[in-house]
Design a protein that fits this description.
The complex is a heterotrimer of chains A (about 425), B (about 525) and C (about 180).
Chain A lengths: L17 H8 L13 H10 L1 E5 L3 H13 L3 E6 L23 H12 L4 E6 L7 H5 L3 E5 L3 H14 L11 E7 L2 E7 L22 H6 L4 H17 L9 H17 L7 H8 L7 H20 L8 E5 L5 E5 L13 E7 L5 H10 L9 E4 L2 E4 L4 H7 L7 H4 L5 E5 L6 E8 L1
Parallel strand pairs in A: 1-2, 1-4, 2-3, 4-5, 9-13
Antiparallel strand pairs in A: 5-6, 6-7, 7-8, 10-11, 10-12, 12-13
Helix pairs in contact in A: 3-11, 8-9, 8-10, 9-10
Chain B lengths: L8 H12 L3 H5 L1 H16 L2 E5 L3 H11 L5 E5 L6 H6 L13 H10 L6 E5 L3 H4 L3 H8 L3 E5 L3 H10 L9 E7 L2 E7 L2 E4 L17 H9 L7 H4 L4 H15 L8 H13 L7 H9 L1 H5 L5 H6 L16 H15 L20 H29 L7 H9 L5 E4 L10 H9 L4 H18 L8 H12 L8 H11 L6 H20 L8 E5 L4 E5 L2
Helix pairs in contact in B: 4-24, 10-12, 12-14, 13-14, 17-18, 21-22, 21-23, 22-23
Chain C lengths: L3 H8 L11 H11 L7 E4 L8 E6 L11 E6 L10 E4 L29 H13 L9 H9 L1 H12 L3 E2 L2 E2 L7
Antiparallel strand pairs in C: 1-2, 2-3, 3-4, 5-6
């Protein structure tokens, strides 16, 4: 064996990447021509590539470990949560002593200690705290989140970030998710392939019960629990917010639900069910997370190295009955509010009024637009309805577009004749 | 808790809150208990797993078994940590582990994942253990044996050993190279009570039990007030409507599309005012009437299944399950019985008022209890000498509509069967079988010559052609598989290892808990195409 | 690293760039500007720049609630339309499907919400509650009971409550100028 530096954390020992190097030294039958076998690809992977992991939970812990072992050395991780005891059955970088500490920090520390030479930069906070400049620094973003809202946010942010003049602005997003024995991994190339928003209708609807059933005709233990959380909590506690992580709050809900269940002779209210209903708990196990995280990291590795074709674009796994998986291309949705819709570059005189612009839009044969409403960012320019907003924005009709929208600025146009919206980029002569 | 009626909610809360909150163990396992409950957890906790070799794939598998809380694991590995191991295995201490025993280095790092799991390293060669009776018996005493990239010779010996007796533990065989992998579970029989399939139990709409029929008979639509009318449970509406239909159609239920549409129209015509959601529900649930069977066909098929019996000892495998299955058969055929599977006490939600629902639920529960007693009496009379755990009997009765029995084959069964090989190569998608056979070829070649540089696409291909034999067309996909394996014949890639770690652990959990349905056949993984497939044998 | 940009150039020459407006925001703009409300419904934006929080006032011109003016608060979060808007009735009113805390029993606000529905559907649904109160699945049980048993008495109670008087010892908010 070759001698290595005493400080093994700063250097790679000989043979360290024996396994990974087999696929980096030689192309396979399905590898693209652009693959730069050998030192070039290794240098990019190990010295240049910067990767962001969003979420340091069930998927995140796995993702971090896999990325570190495959040779990514500059890894960043964001997570806003702290460690809970119920995480320990799968989030394998955490120990009982870590309960209460930020996931991102503990996970980063663990990876750096276990896999020498890998730098993991944690951020304990929300993804929304970071701006475009932050996201622009990465080559690839891998997402292991359990929240629809956070996913929609990062997806929209990365799609919006794509700048025609800057190829570096297009960041591949790899997204994983699991539920019990089921999961999915997908590759999103913002503006090129189907995005998260395109497939929003594939999500299971969260169960909600009719409020009158909850109030008056409860039949299931869940109805009693919803009664306690939706109706009784605000009635009894007023403004005090329900904290579903507070065992005292859960205890109150449980007992309130139980009392009601007894009154109606309904069986089955338990602490676990109460917690499950109010926190909308999704079952989660290490093995499914391992599969999906591995799939995500495998795609990140293939994208970063070009060593093999990457997933196009959706891998779905159902492990309840045998092993069933389905790999398919999820189609881009034309009317997707994030990556779909129409877009138009127009150049107008600085003197044009908003009214003139609207007339122009209405007259344009190719877009067939009627009664358009316009806004720029969250600022309204002209709204056709409701009356109050129409009145409030009417004075803008007389104003020059250039007073309201900067050169190269974006205008969102909606109209009942458009399936979703039209995005205008305005330039002035 | 005090039952005093005047007690306020606040008073009641303080009384029981502390007891009700689950203990630390339950909290730790909360997210998995929602999948396999305390019974599955208990099975896991009493399991003892043997894993042969401490490769990256093996430790990944173990990680996913230690976390949910198996009882005990053993890593059997004679090797020391190489520079390559230190680079791709998360459960080694990096550079500082090099040169030390691979099993001994990995065990503590796996054990620290879960204090309640015990583990040990055994620094021995499996080949040596397979030579002695003690060694063989030691292997047989595990609940489950998992082997990753074990060379063909010892693998076949091991597979033979674990196929000697009916009750020998299942053997999970895992093979991987680069982006490609496959795995196989060698087992005799897997009897599953809680398969968690989504088939709903019958609620006896076509054959209502007496109390239910009485409710339907006594209901007079003209005598109920509008609010009651809007809260008649759909089950009652359907039973009533079905009775009337039968009376007009010589005892037959709607059969043709037109008849079914006509039947639904009748339900719609019962609606007296808008928003009667119960009638809407009855219309959508009418499908139960024509799809409800006394005994579902997949359960019917199980009735002809004879238990596996060892020729030497005359012992039966899974005797309790088979006794229950035979009893179930007798139950559905019994003239005193309902002609159905025993009633499950779980009732779906219905748009009705609390009182009607609770009343209905109690009726179903009462009937379910009657039938459970009948079932148990039948069981006792058929098998007076057999004692079966009460919980198992109850669970069997409750889940009778979703029971499953899998019969496995010995490792190598596919390769020994020319017809099966040919069928596998013709199945779609064709690359599943070609990848599997290419992995066969790789393990044969690696055993012949441990120098990986001797392995080329050509040698792999001719090895495949060799055992597939003359006259069988091999799909062109084989070129992709052999090319990929020649590229990375000995690569245990971290991502592939992690992927398999999840897959194998998941199947192991299903085998141990006897819940959910494990894979039967070769499961092939292609992480270039990002897909999995099954080769049946 | 794969050359994604080349993929883009080849198949998506006129690539799109979207404004920095969230999908929820655009959707709300679309919903609001395409509202077709009858005379009996008016929206009010306390802050005209905040499209996500506003009120709707319904003044039924027929039925038992004619003459009343009922204001609902709408709060839309950034997960719209994946999640429905949160709607509450601001005044305390006597209605079988509205409880004393302002919770409203309307299926499309909870269990039957789907993203293809829009604010117009919700508003129409709310108006419908005043034309056809549903006594069978109530939130205010007493009111529903009354409507079932004695319609005349119920109508009388509605009038009393709308004037700000008490019904069965519960005082309601005045929502009628009459």
């Amino acid at each position: 064996m070759t001698t290595v530096n005493d400080d093994a954390t700063s250097s790679d020992w000989d043979g360290r990447y024996y396994h990974v190097d087999q696929v980096l030294n030689t192309p396979g039958p399905r590898t693209e021509d652009s693959f730069q076998a050998g030192d070039a690809v290794k240098d990019f992977l190990r010295n240049q590539c910067k990767i962001l992991v969003i979420g340091a939970g069930g998927l995140g812990c796995e993702i971090l470990a896999n990325l570190a072992l495959t040779g990514f050395k500059d890894i960043h991780v964001i997570d806003m949560d702290t460690i809970d005891i119920s995480n320990l059955n799968r989030q394998f970088l955490f120990r009982p002593k870590d309960v209460g500490n930020p996931k991102a920090l503990v996970a980063a520390e663990f990876i750096m200690q276990r896999v020498p030479g890998v730098k993991v930069t944690p951020y304990f906070g929300k993804i929304q705290d970071k701006d475009e400049d932050y996201y622009l620094q990465f080559n690839i973003i891998v997402c292991g989140l359990d929240s629809v809202e956070a996913r929609r946010w990062i997806n929209a942010t990365l799609v919006n970030m794509v700048d025609e003049e800057n190829p570096e602005s297009l960041k591949p997003l790899i997204d994983g998710g699991t539920e019990g024995f089921k999961g999915q991994a997908r590759v999103i190339l913002p503006t090129i392939s189907s995005c998260y928003e395109c497939s929003l209708d594939m999500l299971n609807k969260p169960t909600a019960f009719p409020i009158c059933t909850i109030a008056n005709t409860p039949r299931l233990p869940e109805h009693c629990i919803e009664w306690a959380s939706v109706l009784e909590w605000p009635r009894v506690h007023g403004e005090k917010k329900l904290d579903t992580d507070d065992p005292e709050h859960i205890g109150w809900l449980y007992n309130t639900a139980l009392t009601r269940a007894k009154e109606f002779k309904i069986e089955g209210v338990t602490w676990s069910l109460t917690q499950g209903v109010v926190k909308n708990i999704i079952p989660a196990i290490a093995s499914t997370n391992a599969i999906i995280a591995a799939s995500c990291c495998n795609e990140a590795f293939k994208i970063a190295t070009s060593s093999a074709a990457f997933l196009n674009n959706y891998f779905m796994l159902i492990g309840t009955e045998g092993v069933y998986s389905y790999t398919f291309e999820h189609e881009k949705r034309k009317e997707c509010p994030v990556c779909g819709g129409e877009s138009l570059d127009i150049t107008i005189s600085k003197e044009w009024t908003v009214e003139r612009l609207i007339e122009m839009l209405v007259e344009k044969q190719d877009i067939q637009i009627k009664k358009p409403s316009l806004s720029s960012g969250i600022k309204q320019i002209y709204f056709q309805a409701p009356p109050q907003l129409e009145q409030a924005t009417r004075p803008n009709l007389e104003k020059k577009v250039s007073e309201l929208v900067e050169d190269g600025g974006e205008v969102t146009v909606t109209s009942s004749t458009l399936p979703f919206n039209l995005s205008l980029r305005i330039k002035y002569t | 808790m005090s039952q005093s009626g005047s007690q306020t909610i606040e008073q009641a809360t303080t009384a029981i809150q502390v007891d009700a909150q689950p203990d630390n163990k339950t909290r730790r396992y909360d997210r998995q208990l929602r999948l396999w409950a305390a019974s599955g957890q208990a099975a896991l906790e009493s399991s003892r797993i043997l894993v042969i070799s401490a490769t990256a794939t093996s430790t990944s598998i173990l990680k996913n078994l230690v976390l949910p809380g198996i009882g005990h694991f053993t890593i059997l590995d004679p090797k020391n940590v190489s520079a390559a191991d230190a680079g791709n295995n998360f459960f080694l201490n990096g550079y500082s582990s090099i040169g030390k025993s691979r099993a001994e280095e990995a065990v503590p790092l796996l054990k620290e994942l879960n204090d309640s799991v015990d583990g040990e390293a055994v620094v021995k060669r499996v080949e040596d253990l397979l030579k002695t009776d003690d060694g063989k018996q030691w292997i047989k005493n595990f609940t489950l044996v998992i082997a990753h990239n074990l060379p063909n010779g010892p693998l076949e010996t091991l597979s033979d050993l674990l196929w000697e007796e009916l009750e020998d533990p299942p053997l999970m065989i895992v093979r991987s190279a680069g982006f490609l992998a496959d795995f196989y579970i060698q087992f005799r029989e897997q009897c599953i009570i809680e398969s968690h399939t989504e088939t709903a139990p019958s609620i006896r709409l076509t054959k209502p039990f007496p109390a239910l029929q009485e409710w339907a008979d006594n209901l007079d639509y003209s005598k109920v007030d509008p609010t009651e009318h809007a809260h008649i449970p759909f089950a009652i509406i359907l039973i009533k409507e079905a009775d009337q239909w039968r009376a007009e159609h010589n005892g037959a239920l709607p059969n043709t599309y037109e008849e079914k549409a006509q039947f639904k129209k009748r339900i719609r015509e019962r609606v007296v005012k808008i928003d009667e959601e119960n009638f809407e529900e009855a219309e959508t649930q009418a499908v139960r009437l024509w799809s409800e069977k006394g005994v579902p066909s997949d359960i019917e098929e199980l009735f002809s299944l004879e238990p596996l019996t060892s020729s030497s000892s005359k012992q039966t495998l899974n005797p309790e399950f088979h006794a229950l299955l035979k009893t179930l058969h007798a139950f559905v055929n019994s003239p005193e019985g309902p002609g159905n599977l025993p009633m499950s006490s779980t009732l779906p939600d219905m748009k009705t008022d609390t009182e009607s629902y609770v009343k209905l639920q109690r009726m179903y529960k009462a009937q379910s209890a009657i039938e459970a007693t009948q079932f148990k009496e039948l069981l006792a009379s058929k098998y007076p000498q057999l004692t079966i755990d009460e919980d198992m009997v109850d669970s069997f009765i409750k889940h009778a509509h979703q029971i499953k029995v899998l019969r496995g084959k010995k490792y190598g069964a596919l390769e020994a069967d020319k017809d099966a090989i040919s069928a596998a190569l013709q199945a779609w998608p064709s690359d599943t079988a070609t990848t599997h056979f290419a992995l066969n070829a790789l393990s044969i070649l690696l055993e012949k010559n441990s120098d990986p540089t001797t392995i080329t696409a050509e040698t792999l291909k001719s090895e495949v052609e060799n055992f597939v034999g003359q006259g069988v067309d091999i799909p062109e996909d084989l070129d992709n598989a052999v090319g990929e394996l020649a590229r990375s014949p000995t690569a245990d890639l971290p991502n592939t290892a992690a992927f398999l770690g999840g897959m194998i652990a998941q199947e192991a959990i299903k085998m141990i808990t006897k819940q959910y349905v494990p894979v039967n056949g070769w499961c092939v993984v292609d992480l270039i195409e990002s897909k999995t497939g099954i080769v049946n044998n | 690293m794969i050359k994604i940009w080349s993929m883009k150039k080849s198949e998506d020459a006129a690539a799109k760039r979207k404004p920095k407006t969230s999908a929820a925001q655009i959707r709300v703009q679309k919903d609001l500007t395409e509202l077709e409300l009858p005379e009996t419904m008016k929206t009010n934006f306390p802050d005209a720049n905040d499209l996500l929080n506003f009120t709707l006032t319904i003044t039924p011109d027929e039925g038992m609630y004619k003459g009343g003016s009922f204001t609902f608060s709408f709060a839309i979060n950034t997960n719209y339309p994946h999640e429905p808007p949160k709607v509450k009735c601001i005044p305390k009113i006597y209605h079988p499907n509205v409880d004393l805390d302002g919770n409203v029993c309307l299926n499309i606000l909870r269990e039957d919400w789907k993203p293809v529905l829009n604010l117009n559907s919700v508003m129409v649904g709310l108006q419908y509650l005043f034309l056809e109160p549903n006594a069978d699945d109530p939130l205010n049980k007493e009111a529903a009971e009354e409507l079932r048993r004695n319609r005349e008495q119920f109508i009388y109670n509605v009038r009393q409550a709308m004037r700000g008087n008490s019904v069965k010892a519960i005082q309601y908010d005045r929502v009628s100028a009459l």
